Amino acid sequence: xxxxxxxxxxxxxxxxxxxxxxxxxxxxxxxxxxxxxxxxxxxxxxxxxxxxxxxxxxxxxxxxxxxxxxxxxxxxxxxxxxxxxxxxxxxxxxxxxxxxxxxxxxxxxxxxxxxxxxxxxxxxxxxxxxxxxxxxxxxxxxxxxxxxxxxxxxxxxxxxxxxxxxxxxxxxxxxxxxxxxxxxxxxxxxxxxxxxxxxxxxxxxxxxxxxxxxxxxxxxxxxxxxxxxxxxxxxxxxxxxx
Length: 242
Ligand SMILES: Nc1ncnc2c1ncn2[C@@H]1O[C@H](COP(=O)(O)OP(=O)(O)OP(=O)(O)O)[C@@H](O)[C@H]1O
Ligand SMILES: [Mg+2]
Prior knowledge:
There is one protein chain. The chain is of the alpha/beta class. It has a single domain (about 35-50, about 75-240), classed as Rossmann fold, CATH 3.40.50. The protein has 9 helices and 10 strands. It has helices spanning about 45-50, 75-80, 100-110, 115-130, 145-155, 175-190, 200-205, 225-230, 230-240, and strands spanning about 5-15, 20-30, 35-40, 60-65, 70, 85, 160-165, 195, 210-215, 220-225. A 6-stranded mixed β-sheet has the order 6-7-8-3-9-10, with helices on both faces. Strand 7 (about 160-165), helix 6 (about 175-190) and strand 8 form a beta-alpha-beta unit. The longest helix has 16 residues, at about 175-190. The chain starts with a strand and ends with a helix. Adenosine-5'-triphosphate (ATP) binds near residues 39, 43 and 44.
């Protein structure tokens, strides 16, 4: 493994009953990059995130983070090591305000955290994401784009070295997609490496350094946006439809 690889997946496999959702996937995430993960609905993208972050057990294969095996660790342990994530369907705490939601990440996602530091860091992150006007607002009263940003803010509050984003831009209008793209680039600019699942091709093609493609659980292509955009198999199974 070369020095600049932060996450390495080797032979990652997950079966649900008789269906193989992730099939012997090898991939690497390199320090400082924005890596796109694309593929048709049901390709196994979110399942791969769940394997990496420890939300579901891996059947075979393993994930290494910063050169150490993390397969089998609980999600909170993986988070404490510096791997943050968001969910395709936002998992915010609906009965809490935006600030309280972000504070959960700052409090519980950082080892040896103090309440006072968590408070300060929460306010810094809310300002950084630009969500200040909603800080005291309950989650259900915040528009969809804001609700997705809460997830990003809570993940950032855990001080990740790597951030996994699952469809941050789905359901957003074009102006909101532009804002989300700018946010992802800003996050990477602060030294956080990003792996993102996205169906919004404009975003994928504009912000990713590299792209990997899943189809029926298998990794079928890998390359720069230009290479993936002109890959005949990828166009046939996916890009022709989006
Ligand atoms: N907990 C589960 N139990 C059973 N089957 C599951 C489970 N989670 C996912 N699957 C199945 O695994 C396959 C891959 O699902 P996954 O959610 O990873 O796809 P995806 O690539 O993220 O798709 P989308 O783009 O629609 O979000 C699908 O057939 C899905 O129905
Ligand atoms: Mg998904």
